[in-house]
Design goal:
alpha/beta, Sulfate adenylyltransferase, Rossmann fold, five-stranded mixed beta sheet
C-alpha cells in the first residue's frame, strides 16, 4: 500500500512531450487535461472554450498500478517518466473512457491489425482519464518557442510548413522559393520522431541546412524541430500542424494537396478541405502537386502543364529514398547531388576499398594529395554523369 499512498502515475516519453507542448502553448486553446464534459464537447462538436480543436485532450495511462492509483480518486498526482518525477496534476476529475472510441477519434479507425499505430496507442491507453491543471518539466520546447517568436518579431508575413524531408528534393526547393518570394519568413517544422528513425533527424537536418545555406537567403528560412508524438499519427495531423504553426507565431500555413487527412474535395465547383469547416485563425494555403515534365523540361504544376501524366515524373520522397537504398544515385532532376552524396555516404559507410585512388582517377586534380570523403567521391562521380559532350 506504500506505493498507492504516493499517488504516482507512470507515463512514457511521448506523453511527457505532448504535455510539455500544451504547457508551452503550442496547442492553444488547449491548456489543461479536459474533464468529462469538456472532452465530450471537444470530440462531438470539435470545440473547447468555444474555439476549434480536433479532439479532446486527455491523459489516460495504461497499467495495473496506474489504474489502482486512479481508482482511489487522489487530489494530486505525481507524474513519473523513466523513473524520474517530471510533473504533477491538480486533479479536477477522474472518469472512465472507452479506449476503442478514443482511438477511432484520433485515427478514424480502431483496426489494430492493419494499423500498427492504433495497436500501439491501444496498449498505452487505460480505462481512466485524469482531468485538471498540470505542470511538467520542460523538454526545451518553451525555449524554442520563445526563440522563434523573438526571431520573427516585427515581421508581417510568416509562413509555416511541416516537412519530413526524407530526403529533401527539387519540389521542396521550388515550394520554398515560392514562399520566400512573397513572404518575410518561412519556418520549416522538421519532423523529429521520438523512436529510432530509418533516416536520422540529424542527417535530414544537415541536408536541409546545406540546401538553405548554399541556395537560399539564410535570413528568410528557419528550421524548427517538431517532435512527432502519437497525436500526430491520425487523421487530424494537418489540423494539429496548423495549430502549432499558429502558436509559434505564423500567420499562414502551407500544405500539399496530397497530404493525408486534408480531405480535399470539390463542392459547388470549389476546392474544399477540412480547414473550410474549422477556422483555426491562421490562413491555410494548399499547394498544387508538382512534377517534372519531359516535354516542358522543368518542374511544373499538374494544373498548368498541358501534357499528360505519361510525360510526368512524380516526386515521392519514399520512392526516391528507396532508390538511394539500392545504392543508386538519383538523377539530379530529382534531388541535388550534394544531398544524394550525404545519404549514400551514410547508408554505405566505407563502401570503397581504394577510395583515394578512385577519387583521383575520376576527378580533375592539381596534383596535391588531399583526403577525400565518400561524399566527395559521389559528387565527383555525379559530375561525370552530367558530362554531355560524349553522349
Amino acid at each position: 500500500m506504500e506505493f498507492l499512498n504516493k499517488n504516482k502515475i507512470f507515463i512514457d516519453q511521448e506523453a511527457h512531450i505532448t504535455l510539455a507542448m500544451v504547457q508551452a502553448g503550442l496547442l492553444k486553446p488547449i491548456d489543461k487535461l479536459m474533464n468529462k464534459k469538456e472532452a465530450k464537447i471537444a470530440d462531438e462538436k470539435k470545440l473547447y472554450k468555444n474555439k476549434p480543436v480536433p479532439f479532446s485532450f486527455i491523459l489516460a495511462p495504461a497499467g495495473r498500478r496506474n489504474e489502482e492509483v486512479l481508482k482511489n480518486n487522489p487530489k494530486k498526482i505525481e507524474l513519473f517518466c523513466e523513473g524520474v518525477k517530471v510533473g504533477e496534476i491538480e486533479v479536477e476529475e477522474i472518469y472512465e473512457i472507452d479506449p476503442i472510441k478514443r482511438v477511432k477519434t484520433i485515427y478514424g479507425t480502431a483496426d489494430a491489425k492493419n494499423y500498427p499505430q492504433v495497436a500501439k496507442t491501444l496498449k498505452r491507453l487505460g480505462k481512466y482519464a485524469i482531468a485538471g491543471n498540470f505542470w511538467v518539466e520542460d523538454t526545451g520546447i518553451k525555449k524554442r518557442v520563445d526563440f522563434v517568436k523573438e526571431k520573427i518579431k516585427g515581421l508581417k508575413s510568416v509562413v509555416g510548413m511541416t516537412m519530413h524531408a526524407k530526403p529533401i528534393h527539387r519540389v521542396h526547393e521550388k515550394i520554398m522559393r515560392q514562399v520566400i518570394e512573397k513572404n518575410d519568413m518561412l519556418i520549416i517544422f522538421l519532423i523529429k520522431n521520438i523512436q529510432k528513425e530509418e533516416i536520422p533527424y540529424q542527417l535530414r537536418y544537415e541536408a536541409l541546412k546545406e540546401i538553405i545555406n548554399n541556395y537560399f537567403p539564410k535570413n528568410k528560412i528557419l528550421i524548427v524541430p517538431l517532435l512527432n508524438t502519437y497525436i500526430f499519427s491520425g487523421v487530424n495531423e494537418a489540423i494539429l500542424d496548423a495549430m502549432i504553426a499558429k502558436n509559434f507565431g505564423c500567420n499562414k500555413f502551407i500544405i500539399g494537396q496530397t497530404h493525408k487527412g486534408l480531405g480535399i474535395h470539390y463542392e459547388a465547383n470549389h476546392l474544399k478541405s477540412i480547414f473550410d469547416s474549422m477556422d483555426l485563425g491562421i490562413e491555410v494555403e494548399t499547394i498544387n502537386e508538382y512534377v517534372y515534365c519531359e516535354k516542358c523540361k522543368t518542374i511544373v504544376s499538374v494544373n498548368s502543364c498541358p501534357h499528360g501524366s505519361h510525360h510526368h515524373i512524380s516526386y515521392h520522397s519514399d520512392s526516391i529514398f528507396e532508390l538511394i537504398k539500392t545504392g543508386l544515385i538519383p538523377p539530379t532532376i530529382l534531388m541535388r547531388k550534394e544531398i544524394s552524396a550525404k545519404y549514400l555516404a551514410y547508408l554505405f559507410p566505407n563502401r570503397f576499398k581504394n577510395l583515394q585512388k578512385l577519387y583521383y582517377d575520376i576527378s580533375p586534380n592539381k596534383g596535391l594529395i588531399e583526403e577525400s570523403s565518400d561524399e566527395d567521391f559521389y559528387i565527383a562521380l555525379m559530375k561525370l554523369y552530367q558530362t554531355s559532350s560524349l553522349t
